[in-house]
Amino acid sequence: MPPRQAAATGTHVVRRMNVAAVLSALREGDSSATVSSLASATGLSRPAVTRALGELRDRGLVELTAASASSQPGRPAQYARFRAESGHVAGIDIGSHKVLVMIADLAGKVLTVLRAAVPAGVTGPELFEIVRSGLTAAVTEAGIRLSGLWAVSVGVPGVVDRDRGEVLLAPSIPGWAGLPAVSLLRAWLHCPVSIDNDVNLAVAGERWRGAAADACSDSLVFVHWGRRIGTGIILNGMTHRGSSAAAGELGFIDLASGPDDPPGPRHADGIGPFERLVGAAAIHRLAQEAGAPAGDEEDISPLFDAAAAGEPAAVEVVERVAARFARGLAALVLILDPGRVVIGGGVSRAGDALLEPVRRHLRGHALVPVTVHASVLGEQAVALGAVRHALDAAEERLPVSGRET
Amino acid sequence: MPPRQAAATGTHVVRRMNVAAVLSALREGDSSATVSSLASATGLSRPAVTRALGELRDRGLVELTAASASSQPGRPAQYARFRAESGHVAGIDIGSHKVLVMIADLAGKVLTVLRAAVPAGVTGPELFEIVRSGLTAAVTEAGIRLSGLWAVSVGVPGVVDRDRGEVLLAPSIPGWAGLPAVSLLRAWLHCPVSIDNDVNLAVAGERWRGAAADACSDSLVFVHWGRRIGTGIILNGMTHRGSSAAAGELGFIDLASGPDDPPGPRHADGIGPFERLVGAAAIHRLAQEAGAPAGDEEDISPLFDAAAAGEPAAVEVVERVAARFARGLAALVLILDPGRVVIGGGVSRAGDALLEPVRRHLRGHALVPVTVHASVLGEQAVALGAVRHALDAAEERLPVSGRET
Questions:
Q1: Is the pLDDT of residue B69 over 60?
Q2: How far is CA A23 from CA A33, A66, A154, A226, in A?
Q3: Confidence band (pLDDT; 50, 70, 90) for A163?
Q4: Tell me, what's the pLDDT at B88?
Q5: CA-CA 20 to 30 A from B159: which of A98, B166, B175, B284?
Q6: Residues A253 and B334 sit within 8 Å (Cβ to Cβ)
């Protein structure tokens, strides 16, 4: 009897949709929502809104407070507020030098950012202990308990099997690949834990809270430009990871030699041809060879300071670096036509002193306009993207449909 | 009163869904479907299937025939068949040398392929007349009328504004850009007419009926390798066109010079640096310079025949061409990680004599596996992709949800 089934299903579905609509209006609107304002925002009747609010209050997601004496006779107005503090998420950026832990409430408000240094030569299990104690300390600082975490998302360098929650390849952290970090975290935390490549989280962070957050397009490319060069890609609102989770490997494109030369040494040190050409270490070396201020391999900012001050050798090195990088970036832009690119990573801290010549050289290669922004999130991009992914996972516990990322 | 509304909506929605489910089962199954087999395929009751079949017959989409005397007592069994001939679509490939018109029924069965040569130096309006008479002849050959076309899809070289149905840039066909071809076709045909870049249709054709059609992945890259080099990209089942409809411009990546050389002359002839390096004309020139059989610019197959026969100069040229091409293809593969690539266009007719060295050189650049197929559709890839797009548009007239492409 399809009609009768439909009616029964329909009622249930409509009630759930009403609850979701009211919650969505509450989360998007200001904090002083009333039954009337919610009825008008959702198109639902006042009784339907009242019923949905009751259910949301029973689930701890909404707080109802009586307004001060109403000017109207009859029942006093009630204010409804989404209790963003009813749940929390953690975003964790695990790198070879540092672990960054971020705690946020269900509204995405960041409550705590905790940074722990990672000593050189740390083993996988030692690194896991740093993550564990960092998360414990961050949760305490945020004034919540570990059991208050609805979801945790982890970003790591290297190739990740998201389905199995495993790091397959992590050249920069010895002993980290193969460690069942996600299983260990899940067993400890009893909440959904996901893991992703760090640039895939960085592009999510940049799209959410970064330099390109106000743009209307649904596509964004994030290029990490440091010692390594990698790319996080969002197309049509979805992270593009590729058929083997290996998309965005800009660092391995080969522009280092002429068209008929053999390719450079393969995987000699796990560093790709484009990284060898224009990564942080290559820039440092170019500056040294040119007799320009070169800083050290961890911080090449003296080169860019000198270029900004007009020091000829430094200006020439920056020009050469920009031309090389633009040629590789052009390959990415010509293939994807993303409209917008955000550059992050250590080298990007040079800002417009470097990005302005990059933009100029890029115009010589590109066919259509593309805007190039410097990351404004800096070191926090990965952890913020992890918070965004964790919020998406946490939303599955809310009576709303989660977004796809 | 949400529940009552839901019941009313529910019945209507359920009836429409039942009709769609029965039609879908009919189109996917064999031609001897019965009420019983459809009930079992859809999970619907026999009365619901009978009601849906009646509606589909009234709309001309289904033919019901009484089966021969049933062995069971009671009403005789009926066979239901989807009337794929109740509508037709056309796919049109407009190139600078030829126009290809393909007519197919609603099951995607190709009834007619018509090829019309395009004289050199043709004007836009003259080309439009070739399309018009070609379509008229093809429809006649298929035994239908123009009014029987449910949708038409057109592929052209150059940059296309799909929303406005205009060709913005068509360097290879003078006078074609700016011609309101889609408006003229719509006014003439009174059915949906869409236009797209030819490589975007070629990749749709290859995914549907080509070398990679049996693969389970939802991503595919098609590289047109002829005088021009361009790429059609399907990711997660959707055509990736880019924010300015300029994605896939592999022909413009710059591998022609060393990393610190200035970029080559810009748009001197509308030919990109990678096309100048390894397009058909460049291969022809390389063969001539090496004293190998070179054919002519339109057909360089003598070079590949000589290489297959072991002629040293030809082998060396093919090796160099493969190495150059693989380096550019690697950039695409490293950025997209598509898993599968199909190579089409005139140069690809060389087959494995060329693609085997391309695969070998590609392995020296790529990080994860990628399979490289030669197109088996050849010249028909674009028109077949246009048929596929037209079928998607035609499905909007059927009681099913259309696919996104």
A1: no
A2: 11, 19, 28, 42
A3: confident
A4: 96
A5: B284
A6: yes
Cβ neighbors of B361 (< 8 A, separation 6 or more) are: B322, B323, B325, B326, B327
Fold observed for domain B86-203: Nucleotidyltransferase; domain 5 (3.30.420)
d(CA B365, CA A254): 8
Strands (E), A76-216: 78-82, 88-94, 98-105, 110-117, 149-156, 159-161, 166-169, 193-197
* Partners of residue B245 in chain A, C-beta under 8 Å: 337
pTM beyond 0.95: the answer is no
Q: What is the mean pLDDT of residues B341-352?
A: 94
More confident residue, B285 or B237: B285
**Which sign does the torsion angle of CA A126, A132, A136, A139 carry?**
positive
Residue closest to B200 by CA, chosen among A240, A339, A337: A337
Number of neighbouring beta carbons within 10 Å of residue B90: 31
Count of CB pairs separated by less than 8 Å, A with B: 187
| C-alpha distance from B87 to closest chain A C-alpha (Å) | 31
The CB density around residue A52, as the number of other CB atoms within 10 Å, is 28
* pLDDT grade for B76, boundaries at 50, 70 and 90: low
**CB neighbours of residue B101 within 10 Å:** 29
Decide which of 1.10.150.120, 2.60.40.1120, 1.10.10.10, 3.40.50.1820 is the CATH code for A2-82. 1.10.10.10
Fold of A211-376: Nucleotidyltransferase; domain 5 (3.30.420)
CB contact under 8 A, A243 and B337: yes
Chain A residues lying within 8 Å of B238, measured CB to CB: 236
A392 pLDDT above the threshold of 50:
yes
| 3-state secondary structure (DSSP) of residue A234 | strand
CA distance A92 to A88: 13
